[in-house]
C-alpha cells in the first residue's frame, strides 16, 4: 500500500513541477517612437536613421541614433529623482528589480474621478482579500489609464507638452495616482521596493507638489510610470523583471518590464504550496491506511 | 512508520525548495557614461543634466537628457542590423531573451592571438565536455577582453574612433571573435537564440566583411556585444534575462543583462531532480519497511 502511494506521490509531484514550468510572459513596456508620451515639458524621443538598406560594403545594413529624456515612455524614476543622496539608476540592486509583483485595482474609482488618488483604505481593502502586501514586492497601481495611451488628451488631461502648469501655477494634468497618505502608509507600514502605475504620474495629476514621489523616494523606493498591459497582470502571484538601462548617475531610465504569469517556474512559493499539498494528501492517506 | 516517513519527505522537499530559492544575480551590463565604448565610427553616449539640486518648487530634483547610437556599450544587435527583413529589436519574442545561458571559453587562445576567431572545433570540444549546446540557449563567447574595458587601445586595438578602416580598406580593429565557419556551423547544426561576446565585435576585429554577423542574422539570431563580467558566468547552468530597451524598428538597443547563478529558483529542471531524488529515497525506504 505504501509503495502504491509512493508512486502516486511521485506522479503528482512530477506533474505539478511540469505544470509550473509553463509560464507565459507579459511585456509591460511601451515601444519608443515619436508618439511615446512624456510628462508635459519633459521632452520627446527621436530616432534618426544612419543606414537602412544596401551599402557599398554590405548587402544590408541598419543602424540608428536616438535622443531622449530619461523620464519618457515606460521608465523608472530612481529615488534620486526627488530625494537628495538617494539611489540613482545604477545604484539599485538587482534584487529590487527582479521580485514579486502585486496589483491594486483602483480602475472603477478612477472611472468616476479622473484625479482619484489611491487611499490607505484601498490598500487595506486589498489586504483584506489577498493578505499582507509581501515584503520586497513591486506594487502596481492599476488605474485603467493604459487604455488611453498614447492619446495625449485622454491620458494626461491636456494636449500641452511645453508645461504642466498654467499661469496660476495650477496643474494642467488630470490622471489618477497614489494619494500622499497612501504613499506614507506604505513607507511606514510595509516594505515594498517600488511602485508602478499605468498612467503618466505616480501622483495624481492635480498634485503639483509631487508629494507621493517625494515620500517614497526619500525612503529609497523607486517608481515606474507608463506601465503597459497592467490590465493583464493578476493581483497576486506574478514575478516581475524590471530591468532599466544602466545609466551612470541616472535619475531615471527606460525600463523593460516583463512579468511571468501562470505559474512561473521560478515561483518558489507556488512550488512550495504545490509540494505541501501533495505531501499533505499523502500524509492523510497514509494515516488512514496505517 | 508511513507517517514518520511522510513527515521526513515533507521536510526534505521543503528544505530543497528553500535552498533552490537562493540564487545570486550577475549584472552583465556596463554602465553608460562618456567613457562607454562603441565600435570606431559609431558615436558616443552623452548625458546632459536638466536639474540636479534644489529648485523653486522642490527640495530636490534630478533629471537628465541623453543622446546615443543604438550600438554602444552593452547592446543587442537585432537580426535586422545586417539582414534585410529580419527581426528588429521590438520584434524579438521575450522567450528568446529569457533563456538558458552557456559559455564557451576561448580566452587562452585569444591571449596568444588577439585576432583569434572561435572555430567549429572549439564548439565541438565544448560539447565533448558539457554535452550538446541546449536548444534555445544564448551562447556567450568568453574572450577575456572584458578585462581591458574601457581602455580603447587594449580593447579595440586602436585609439581611432572616427573609422574602423584605414586608407587601404583594412580593419584597424584587433579583437577576438567568432569565425564565420563557427557561425555557419551554429546556424546549420544547433538552435541558439543569440550569441554574446565580451568584446567589441561578434566577428574577429580583422574580419571587415562582418560575415559572422551576416550569417547569424540572416537566420534571425541576435548578437550582444560588450558583455560585462563574463569571467563570472559558469560554462553551463545559468539562466539569463537580456532585456533590451524597446525601440520601435530599432536595429539594436542598450540591453540590461542579468544572469541568475547558483541554483536559480526558476530552474525547473533542478527542482525536478531534487524532487525526484527525495521521492526516490522515500520509495526505497517504503519498500524496505513494507
UniProtKB/TrEMBL annotation, chains A, B:
<protein>
    <recommendedName>
        <fullName>Cyclase</fullName>
    </recommendedName>
</protein>
<dbReference type="GO" id="GO:0019441">
    <property type="term" value="P:L-tryptophan catabolic process to kynurenine"/>
</dbReference>
<dbReference type="InterPro" id="IPR037175">
    <property type="entry name" value="KFase_sf"/>
</dbReference>
<keyword id="KW-0472">Membrane</keyword>
<dbReference type="GO" id="GO:0004061">
    <property type="term" value="F:arylformamidase activity"/>
</dbReference>
<keyword id="KW-1133">Transmembrane helix</keyword>
<dbReference type="InterPro" id="IPR007325">
    <property type="entry name" value="KFase/CYL"/>
</dbReference>
<dbReference type="Pfam" id="PF04199">
    <property type="entry name" value="Cyclase"/>
</dbReference>
<comment type="similarity">
    <text>Belongs to the Cyclase 1 superfamily.</text>
</comment>
<keyword id="KW-0732">Signal</keyword>
<keyword id="KW-0812">Transmembrane</keyword>
<feature type="transmembrane region" description="Helical">
    <location>
        <begin position="270"/>
        <end position="289"/>
    </location>
</feature>
<feature type="signal peptide">
    <location>
        <begin position="1"/>
        <end position="19"/>
    </location>
</feature>
Amino acid at each position: 500500500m505504501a509503495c502504491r502511494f509512493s508512486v502516486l506521490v511521485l506522479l503528482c509531484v512530477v506533474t505539478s513541477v511540469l505544470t509550473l514550468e509553463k509560464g507565459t510572459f507579459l511585456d509591460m513596456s511601451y515601444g519608443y517612437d515619436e508618439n511615446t508620451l512624456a510628462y508635459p515639458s519633459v521632452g520627446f524621443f527621436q530616432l534618426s536613421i544612419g543606414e537602412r538598406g544596401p551599402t557599398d560594403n554590405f548587402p544590408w545594413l541598419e543602424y540608428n541614433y536616438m535622443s531622449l529624456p530619461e523620464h519618457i515612455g515606460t521608465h523608472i524614476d530612481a529615488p534620486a529623482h526627488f530625494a537628495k543622496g538617494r539611489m540613482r539608476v545604477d545604484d539599485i540592486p538587482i534584487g529590487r528589480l527582479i521580485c514579486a509583483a502585486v496589483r491594486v485595482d483602483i480602475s472603477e474609482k478612477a472611472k468616476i474621478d479622473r484625479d482619484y488618488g489611491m487611499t490607505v483604505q484601498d490598500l487595506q481593502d486589498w489586504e483584506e482579500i489577498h493578505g499582507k502586501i509581501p515584503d520586497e514586492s513591486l506594487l502596481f497601481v492599476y488605474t485603467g489609464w493604459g487604455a488611453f495611451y498614447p492619446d495625449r488628451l485622454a491620458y494626461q488631461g491636456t494636449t500641452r507638452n511645453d508645461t504642466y502648469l498654467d499661469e496660476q501655477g495650477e496643474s494642467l494634468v488630470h490622471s489618477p495616482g497614489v494619494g500622499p497618505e497612501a504613499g506614507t502608509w506604505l513607507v511606514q507600514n510595509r516594505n515594498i521596493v517600488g511602485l508602478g502605475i499605468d498612467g503618466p504620474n505616480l501622483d495624481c495629476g492635480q498634485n503639483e507638489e509631487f508629494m507621493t514621489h517625494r515620500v517614497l523616494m526619500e525612503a529609497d523606493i523607486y517608481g515606474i510610470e507608463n506601465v503597459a498591459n497592467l490590465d493583464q497582470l493578476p493581483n497576486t502571484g506574478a514575478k516581475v523583471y524590471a530591468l532599466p538601462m544602466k545609466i551612470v548617475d541616472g535619475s531615471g531610465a527606460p525600463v523593460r518590464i516583463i512579468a511571468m504569469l501562470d505559474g512561473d517556474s521560478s515561483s518558489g512559493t507556488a512550488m512550495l504550496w504545490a509540494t505541501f499539498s501533495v505531501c499533505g494528501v499523502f500524509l492523510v492517506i497514509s494515516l488512514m491506511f496505517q
